[in-house]
Design goal:
The complex is a heterodimer.
Chain A (H helix, E strand, L loop, with lengths): L6 E4 L3 H10 L3 E4 L5 H6 L7 E4 L9 E4 L2 E5 L4 H5 L2 H6 L1 H6 L6 H4 L4 H7 L5 H8 L3 E6 L2 E6 H4 E3 L2 E2 L5 E9 L5 E9 L9 E9 L5 E9 L6 E2 L1 H7 L6 H11 L13 H23 L12
Parallel strand pairs in A: 1-3, 2-3
Antiparallel strand pairs in A: 4-5, 5-10, 6-7, 6-10, 8-9, 11-12, 12-13, 13-14
Chain B lengths: L1 E6 L2 E6 L6 H8 L18 E4 L2 E4 L5 H4 L3 E3 L13 H8 L9 H14 L5 H7 L10 H17 L9
Parallel strand pairs in B: 1-5
Antiparallel strand pairs in B: 1-2, 3-4, 3-5
Helix pairs in contact in B: 3-6
Classes of the chains: A alpha+beta, B alpha+beta.
The structure holds FE2/S2 (inorganic) cluster (2 copies).
Chain lengths: ~300, ~160
């Protein structure tokens, strides 16, 4: 359990980090290190140089940004977890974060690190996809943005160009009176990786009908997916349990679900249907002003 | 590479390889054996230390990254030589320690929790230690220890008229 030798450089700013990255093909950025360090000690990753971006103050922020909330790549997950702006404006993110690892890993783990790592079972990619977040990165001298739905393309695979460094992510804020969110996941123990997770955000109109809805499912497929067809069907509906179940079931009918020792493809598909329906139901009661339920899916 | 580590209030100038984890550095170079090497890949929590007061896993950080931030290990929580902190005392009294392997980490997690929240509920205590595995499975006594310590620490430094 010892990493292979590497060189370590602490970047003072993003220019320096990107220049070093561009100069060395096998260099890697380290942010919170909560996934990279285990990969290195198990020798699944052997970068020749680590570029530490933890002390770049300009990459750690949470701010109001027009009609969205922008979060810097190295912002710690525990900081976002306790942030009042996030709780008020991006409640789905606030709802999902306590499910990431446990307190000690959220104390170091960063928002950008988890997104860049793109684990299919990770919560942050799911939330980014569900809320159509936009990721920004630097590669060499260039800065660019990618919508979350174009960023994740496979298990631990993203479209971030080689030599690129994620710099931040922007969540657009849904405006409206009655917004509600729901999040569920099932795992062997709380804090473990999810076998399946589901997130939903709804906006209800004055008539109580669904004005807008977003539903995402994570850990079931190579990267988190949106249930586009269900969203279309449910917009304008009353979101009653039967309708939701049917729409979600149809959207998940032909997915190519992951299978492993812990959960078969069939189990994942079934659990995804249930969790997505529950997430929508929670989001509806939340939007109606009822108290949100705690995650009690395990077992 | 040469780094300066601030551990338990003392500055140490040491030579480390970049690949030396904070855990190995504490144990092997600074001879602070209270941080235990369990899984060495972030699963068990036995290596927990306080990094700027916050509980983190020392096996998931390279020593070079820790330079410049105050670190507290179990050796740094006692008020004086031969004495125990109120949390350690409570662990002894409630039999919160069996083999002791997980104990330093549990005590440090409790320190971080109580510094932040002097009056945790049972659920909050359970949540706080949920990232730490006790292979002897003495969780009930550990939770009891932390609750007892919290109660005592709240009582300390308060006029008797205010204590229940
Ligand atoms: S030794 Fe660090 S978490 Fe197990
Ligand atoms: S007391 Fe033995 S591992 Fe916890």
């Amino acid at each position: 359990m010892k990493a292979a030798p590497f060189e370590y450089s602490r970047a003072a700013d993003i220019d320096e980090a990107c220049a070093w990255l561009a100069a060395d093909d096998s260099a890697r950025v380290i942010a919170g290190g909560q996934t990279l360090v285990p990969m290195m000690v198990m020798r699944l990753a052997r970068p020749t140089r680590l570029i530490d971006i933890n002390r770049i103050a300009a990459l750690s922020y949470i701010r109001n940004d027009g009609d969205g909330v922008a979060i810097g790549a190295t912002t710690r997950q525990c900081v976002v977890e306790r942030d009042a702006l996030v709780a008020a404006q991006v409640p789905l993110l606030a709802r999902a974060i306590p499910n990431i690892g446990h307190a000690a890993t959220r104390a170091r783990g960063t928002i950008g690190g988890s997104l860049a790592n793109a684990d299919p079972a990770a919560e942050l990619p799911l939330i980014a996809i569900t809320l159509d977040a936009v990721l920004s990165y630097r590669a060499g001298e260039e800065t660019a943005e990618i919508p979350a739905r174009e960023f994740f393309i496979g298990p631990m695979i993203t479209t971030l160009p080689a030599g690129g460094c994620l710099t931040g992510v922007r969540f657009s804020v849904w405006q409206g009176e009655k917004i509600g969110v729901g999040f569920h996941e099932v795992n062997a123990r709380r804090s473990d990786f999810a076998f399946v997770s589901a997130a939903a955000q709804v906006e209800l109109g004055a008539d109580g009908k669904c004005k807008r809805i977003a539903i995402g499912v994570g850990a079931a497929t190579d990267f988190p997916m949106r249930l586009d067809s269900a969203e279309q069907q449910l917009t304008g509906s009353t979101l009653d349990a039967k309708e939701v179940d049917a729409a979600v079931r149809e959207a998940l009918a032909d997915i190519d679900a992951l299978a492993d020792l812990h959960a078969s493809a069939e189990y994942r598909r079934r659990a995804a249907i249930n969790l997505a329906s529950r997430a929508v139901a929670d989001a509806v009661s939340h939007a109606q002003g009822k108290k949100a339920q705690r995650n009690a899916d395990a077992h | 590479m040469r780094i300066e580590l601030n551990v338990n209030g003392t500055l140490h100038e040491i030579e480390v390889e970049p690949r030396t984890t904070l855990l190995d550095c504490l144990r092997d170079l600074l001879d602070l054996k209270g941080a235990h090497a369990g899984c060495e890949h972030g699963v068990c929590g036995a290596c927990t230390v306080l990094f700027d007061g916050v509980a983190v896993r020392s096996c998931l950080m390279f020593a070079a990254q820790a330079a410049g931030t105050p670190i507290t290990t179990i050796e740094g929580v006692t008020p004086g030589p031969g004495e125990l902190s109120p949390i350690q005392d409570a662990f002894c009294e409630t039999h919160g320690t069996q083999c002791g392997y997980c104990t330093p980490a549990m005590v440090l997690v409790a320190h971080a929790l109580l510094a932040d929240n002097p009056e945790p509920t049972r659920d909050q205590i359970v949540e706080a230690i949920s990232g730490n595995i006790c292979r002897c499975t003495g969780y009930a006594q550990i939770v009891e220890a932390i609750a007892l310590a919290a109660e005592r620490m709240r009582g300390a430094n308060r006029p008797r008229s205010l204590s229940k």
